[in-house]
């Protein structure tokens, strides 16, 4: 059940290195549609000689009719970032119009924005939009080292004291309970970063007693506790045994093997692609933000779009009733 995407041709106008492993891409579409803060575009990439798609947050308002995205080159990626970093100006691309699963609500009394690493890409756009609107907000931006701070200088210039930077190697840590306590009643928190950060923010938000719908988040599926490696998935009812490559998601592998899957976000957020775990002789690396920590600990289900297995295999059942 693939969503219908209106693909269009585009041209890569320019590239610029923001950090040693983050590159900014300027993309001229055939038909420009203005993005909203939190928007992303999908791009057709080539992974091991096969076409695939990746979704990247649009950076900034793009008032000149050019989409900008920032892509981190990940050594443990499924291949999309490596493909993007090989592209040169003038390359022809196939892209989608902007979509948004991470909308910025307007007219809240205050906003708290939190970004970890490459998670700054959608948060950057939100911060600029809120600054232009004269809204009350703060941005907390965490990275491992100072050289990892993409857009650091631009944000410091635009935001001033509304920006706080936390560097891991310098001992910087965000006091989440304290920061949430400072947020005005009715204020909202927007966060994008690795899975550990998201889980910590969700836990602190829940413990604060604030309304569930006041927390909004986006994640990226490469963020796990273990390095990706190949693993085997068995579906006894269908008589199938599927090998998931290191550079492939479990969802993609199941679809390629003819298993009819249901999905939407492909980022571990909606839970539509979840399957039931019958047995696992390996460790399940839950990379989603859909299931709660107790549900992940119970190990009865996993989201196939982002979660993986290491040091073993897994046996599952799916919603496929074709046999």
UniProtKB/TrEMBL annotation:
Domain of life: Bacteria
Stated name of the protein: PDR/VanB family oxidoreductase
Residue stretches making up the 2Fe-2S ferredoxin-type domain: 229-322
Enzyme Commission code(s) on record: 1.-.-.-
InterPro entries: 2Fe-2S_ferredoxin-like_sf, 2Fe-2S_ferredoxin-type, 2Fe2S_fd_BS, Beta-grasp_dom_sf, FAD-bd_FR_type, FNR_nucleotide-bd, MRET, OxRdtase_FAD/NAD-bd
Keywords of this entry: Oxidoreductase
Enzyme class: oxidoreductase
Domain FAD-binding FR-type: 5-105
Molecular functions (GO terms): oxidoreductase activity
One Pfam family in the UniProt entry: NAD_binding_1
